[in-house]
Every structure is written in C-alpha cells, then in structure tokens.
Automatic annotation (TrEMBL):
Taxonomy, superkingdom: Bacteria
Pfam families for this protein: Pkinase (PF00069)
Keywords: ATP-binding, Kinase, Nucleotide-binding, Transferase
InterPro entries in the cross-refs: Kinase-like_dom_sf (IPR011009), Prot_kinase_dom (IPR000719), Ser/Thr_kinase_AS (IPR008271)
Provenance organism: Candidatus Terasakiella magnetica
Name of protein: Putative serine/threonine-protein kinase pknL
PANTHER family from the UniProt entry: MITOGEN-ACTIVATED PROTEIN KINASE KINASE KINASE 20-RELATED, SERINE_THREONINE-PROTEIN KINASE YBDM-RELATED
SMART domains: S_TKc
EC number: 2.7.11.1
GO molecular function, a single term: ATP binding
Keyword Signal in annotation: no
Amino acid sequence: MKELLQPAYDKIGKFDVKRVIRSTGSSDLYECYDPDLDIKVALKIFIIKKRLMDKLPYSRESWQRRFINEARLLARIDHPHVIGVRELSSWEGLPYYVMPYIETNLLFEMGRDGDKEDYAAEVQHAPEAQKLSVARSCEILFQTASALAAFHGRGLVHRDIKPANILLTKLHTGLVKLCDPGMVKFPKSEESQAGYWVGTEDFIAPEQKRSAKDVDARADIYALGVLGYRMLVGELPGGVFSGPKEEVAEVPDSLNDLIMRSMSRKVKRRPMNALEFLKEIAPIRAQVRTSQGVNNG
C-alpha cells in the first residue's frame, strides 16, 4: 500500500487545508475549509512535478499558463454537469483556483481495473471492478455527453475523459460534474502538446496516441464509448471483443450500436461530436428509464 501524500501547505490564503484529494503532474487538489462560508471546498494549486517536466518538453511557464486557462475555461462554461470555479488567485507565487467540494467520482462506483498498486495512494481504496446497471450507465453517458457538448461547442477537445475526471455528487444516484480539463485542446493554441500523446491510456483514441495535436471532438467520443462499454460489461475492451450486448442481454440494440461505433478505429464512423452522441443517447436513456421504471439518476 502506497503512503498517502501530505499537503504541501497547511493553509492557502484563508483556506485551511485538510487533505490531498489527488496529485497530478502539474497540480495538487486539496480538500479545504472555507471559514467565511463555513463549508468544504476543493482547491487546486499549481505545483509542477519533475516527472511531468521530464516527460514533455514544455516550460514551467507554459504549464502555468495552461493551468490558469483551465480555471478561466471552467468559469466561463457554466454548465450543470461541469464543475464550477468560485475563485482564481495565487499563494506564494503559485496560482490556485477554488471549486465546490464534490463527494466522490465515477472510479468509486465502477471500481478499479487491474492491480490497486497501479493507482495513486489516494484512490487505492476504490472497490474492485464492477458493472453498473444499464439505466445508470445511460444516465452517466447522457450527463457526461451533455457536459462535453459545452466543450465541443466552443471548439475544445477535453482529451482526458476517464472515471476519475467524472465527479459524482453521490455514489450510485448522484449527478455528473465533469472536471480537470488540464489537457484540453484549445483552438490554434501553441500549448496543444504537438507531436505527443496525452491523456489516460485505457481511454485514449488511437489517433490521440499518435499525436494529441491532431485530434478533434471524436477523440472524446471514443473515450465515451470505452466508458460505456466498461460500465456495462465490468471490464475494459481489449483484443478482439464483441459488443456489450453479448455480455449483458438487456443492453438495447441501439445502445450496443452506439457504443461500438463510438469506439471504432475509423474516426468517420463515430458520432461527429458530443451533441450528436447526445441526440442518440437521449432516446435510449428515455426508453431504458421507461422500461425499468427509473425516476431519477
């Protein structure tokens, strides 16, 4: 078992730091207490790690610029299924931004894939891999696609759709809050990580592995397809595999088709963007909710 990371600070501005929620190559995410509002908040602070600097040949200033752009982007999107930003400031020369504290994420509902030692210490206590119901899977796909449509409508590609970046207000019934657009592809930006692949390997489209610069919204659609397959089947697609309906008989034919097209290696077979995916998943979701008597979540 890996040791839990300790926060680099006890206090950041007025915020009391309680624990590390997650640490990435360019930042740390802390659970904090806001004494003015008397509530928990999530605070993300720019702390660049040597492993990231060694992996990608971009300057500290470039990464810091992306971090600030990330906060401003989240603040502008203002969507019910995208995490909001309450404040952008700096502490000891390091930018940070403050968000609502969200209880958990999809990893803790779907469970881990593979050895828990492959996961960061702060998520090793997630359960082992498990299936989600067809109704819950459709709901998460619908809400995540709705969030992604706000990105794609602005010409942005998220490029890091994965369970840990899909926050949930409550396990099993909560709403989606998409987060962490740190690897987002901005239109005509020099910080598009040209010639390198970025993201999380299990969910990355083949073309994104070749070059993260040369992707469009359909790379995110591929990740949605993988996510849908994983939720329904309980394991990641690998090698030669059939549609989720082969494993779960109650999966509607239309949902099976949508997921398989979304995961196609042929980019042109996938839905063009999240709005097109949303148009297809919406009636499937409604059908499943009606047939199973689901009223919410």
